[in-house]
């Protein structure tokens, strides 16, 4: 049982990380970025390239995360900003288009065969009280915890965080207070891209890299966001870990055939009965 | 000079190819296309067929049956003499009605038994039939490994479902065994903890996995990570994964892989050695058995056209009756249209060696 819970938590942390990248953009711009999974995928491919040119492991991580963070900024500049005054639907359609473009671009650049990166350590398995976990899974849990702590410190204990929150709550009022909303939104897209890139780096050694790897996590991450409540950072963590656990417990104790159907059913139930999710304060405040 | 001009004036012979070249199924099409073009280039270099060059018309099926149908419709407009199709049962099932209607031979390596049970007269499988493969696996598990508690993990696709059903049926018929556990997963699933745990909880002493290269690799890694003591056997996808470095030799120690033939990289037949070298030079990576079989399919088609001409029905009749010696071995159609009838079980050993432990 402990093994099952540990695996569920590790997967849940991935959903939480991608969900976090998702809601950062939602909070800052009100847009839903359905290409978030492809940012994860491109992060993994960037990490592969960085390791093949013999960069040290840590440098490969930094380069990959930076590249995808930069891609986030470009995404904001060329795809989000021109559409910012139009219906949110335009941006959603563009993100879906970008996801198809990114997958096929990756196919051309890196080829159709799945790729592998070196493992995080030479140790295959770490046993903790009878629970066998890969070092990568442990890293996912630790990195998620660290990133959440950093997010908290950034948003609530720095001047930049206050500006970001002000922009998220009301961009026009923030501008009247001397904040540059466009700059803040740009920073948010960079952060969102970097987090998704980090998720790709973490997933690369355990998922194997292919053009579909982002799609595998996007849907569950979106469910995590809905469960947690759109805009809520603690909510997405609860939602992510919750969906990770539901998924694995269903697969073990009900049937692996129904696990995705049950996750989708939960999404529908939340959308109908609990549209604000578990901790949807941000949505309420925006109301 | 005049004869060269005369040869150039001769109309080309069009061969169609509909394969997944983009999207998630691209690993099952793009590498095969390289082998097909390699074969066609060789034939053209050697003068073509009676001085007529071969021309390949290629369309992308992507990961969708609808796209596959559109791709085939486009290819059929070029009036091909035959079409090389994907090694994916679900796409072959979608394409068959069109090739039957157009009366054009479709050749594809889908081992899924159902594709040759539709009564298609113009479809030929240039690989083995998984119904016989699974009988071979069941026999190996029962007679050679002496296992009695078999678990099955499979992908939720036609290939996985039919593999599960045939293996379950054969275990029952040969050893009166019922699988102690059956677990499945979506092709996009990445965490196999639940599936491997289900096998351990049921006390399986042997586990057979039938999926695609990525998910079989992830299952193998999880199997090792969770320290399962059961004997691990898997479909040819694990061999593909090994050739693509998705799993290492050390991860595979003591594991078994069932395939239509041994890894081409280990095959000592001169034709295979040359093909492996040429393919590696062209693409940078080694071919698997299915890729070599697509190369053989083109060469068999060429031999048939040399003997019987380029009429579509003559080509169909040629595939029905011809016994062809390809680089991998002999191809001869059975009543269902399966051309390849060999299968092997390989074991990966500690020193990186791969041993064929059973052959049929």
Parts with pLDDT < 50 across at least 5 consecutive residues of chain B: none
Look at the helices and sheets of chain B and give the structural class: alpha/beta
Number of helices of chain A: 12
> Can you say what the CATH homologous superfamily of the largest domain in chain B is?
Response regulator
Structural domain tally of chain A: 1
Total strand segments of chain A: 2
- Report the sheet-strand fraction of chain A: under 5%
Number of E-type strands of chain B:
14
The biggest sheet of chain B, with number of strands, parallel, antiparallel or mixed sense and barrel status, is: 7 strands, mixed
Question: Strand order of the main beta sheet of chain B, please?
Answer: 7-6-8-9-10-13-14
User: Structural class per helix/strand content of chain A?
Assistant: mainly alpha
Into which percent range does the helicity of residues of chain B fall? 40-55%
How many domain units of chain B? 2
The oligomeric status of these chains comes to heterodimer
Helical segment count of chain B: 12
Secondary structure: elements and pairs:
The complex is a heterodimer of chains A (287) and B (360).
Chain A: H1 2-29, H2 36-52, H3 57-80, H4 88-110, E1 126-128, E2 131-133, H5 135-157, H6 159-169, H7 171-176, H8 181-207, H9 213-228, H10 233-255, H11 259-273, H12 281-286
Chain B: H1 2-9, E1 13-19, H2 30-45, E2 54-60, H3 65-76, E3 82-84, H4 89-102, E4 105-108, E5 123-125, H5 130-144, E6 150-155, H6 158-175, E7 181-185, H7 193-201, E8 206-210, H8 213-225, E9 231-234, H9 236-243, E10 256-259, H10 270-283, H11 289-308, H12 312-321, E11 323-325, E12 330-332, E13 344-348, E14 354-359
Parallel strand pairs in B: 1-2, 1-3, 3-4, 4-5, 6-7, 6-8, 8-9, 9-10
Antiparallel strand pairs in B: 10-13, 11-12, 13-14
Helix pairs in contact in B: 2-10, 2-11, 3-4, 5-6, 8-9, 11-12
